[in-house]
Amino acid sequence: MRHFIRTLAVMALAFPIIGCGGGADHPPVAEVTGVVTKQGQPLVGARVEFYPVNNGAASYGKTDAQGKFELRYSTGGPGAAVDTHSVTIIGGSVNAAPVTQVSGGGADSAEGTLAPMADPEAKPDTKRGGPGAASGEIKGLSAEVTAEGPNVIQLAI
Q1: 38 or 7: which carries more pLDDT confidence?
Q2: Which long-range contacts (CB under 8 A, 24 or more apart) does 51-54 make?
Q3: Mean pLDDT of the chain
Q4: Beta-carbon-side half-sphere exposure of residue 50 (alpha carbons within 13 Å)
Q5: Tens digits of per-residue pLDDT, 138-147?
Q6: What is the arrangement of strands in the sheet containing 47-52, beginning at the earlier edge strand?
Q7: Of 74, 67, 60, 64, which is closest to residue 32 (Cα–Cα)?
Q8: Which residues, if any, are the signal sequence (predicted)?
C-alpha cells in the first residue's frame, strides 16, 4: 500500500510538468505587434496569421479600429515563434469596404521586415482562397520574428 501511495504522489507531481506540454515542447517565442494597412488606411477586423517556415506552430491576431494587432501563439500565450513566417491576412475592411484583392505589388507593397514571397502579378487562385477569393484571403507575404525584438511588423497591402 505504501508503494502505491508513493507512486500516486510521484505521478501527481509529474503531471503538471509533462501533462501540459510546457515550454520545452515549442521553439523560442517572441512578442509580435504590428499594423495592417491597405493603401495607407488601417485594415479593420482582419485576421492575421503567421506560419513559421522552419519550426513551431502558427500564431494569430485580429486588427482593431486602427489596424493594430498582437499575435498569440497557438498555445494561447503572446507572441510567435522566432523564425521567418509566411503571413496570411483574412478579411477586414477599409472604410467599411471588404478587402478581397491585393492591389499593386513590388517594392512599395512591403514595409519594414515584410517582403512579397509570391509573384504579385500572378492570377488569383480563387479555388484555394487566393487574393481574389470571396473570403478576402491575402497570401504571399513574409515577416521575420527575432528573439531580440521588439517585433513591430508593418503589413502594407
Answers
A1: 38
A2: 51/85, 51/86, 51/87, 51/88, 52/27, 52/80, 52/81, 52/83, 52/84, 52/85, 53/83, 53/84, 53/85, 53/86, 54/83, 54/84
A3: 73
A4: 36
A5: 999 999 999 9
A6: 72-73, 59-62, 47-52, 83-90, 137-145, 115-116
A7: 60
A8: 1-19
pLDDT mean over 111-126: 36
Report domain extents, the chain.
27-156
Look at the alpha carbons of 20, 23, 29, 34 in this order and tell me if their dihedral is positive or negative: positive
Beta carbons of 120 and 76 less than 8 angstroms apart:
no
Q: What number of other Cβ atoms are within 10 A of residue 22's Cβ?
A: 11
Residues 6+ apart with CB under 8 A from 94: 38, 39, 41, 42, 43, 44
Q: What is the pLDDT of residues 43-81, one digit of tens each?
A: 999 999 999 999 999 999 999 999 999 999 999 999 999
CATH code reported for the domain at 27-156: 2.60.40
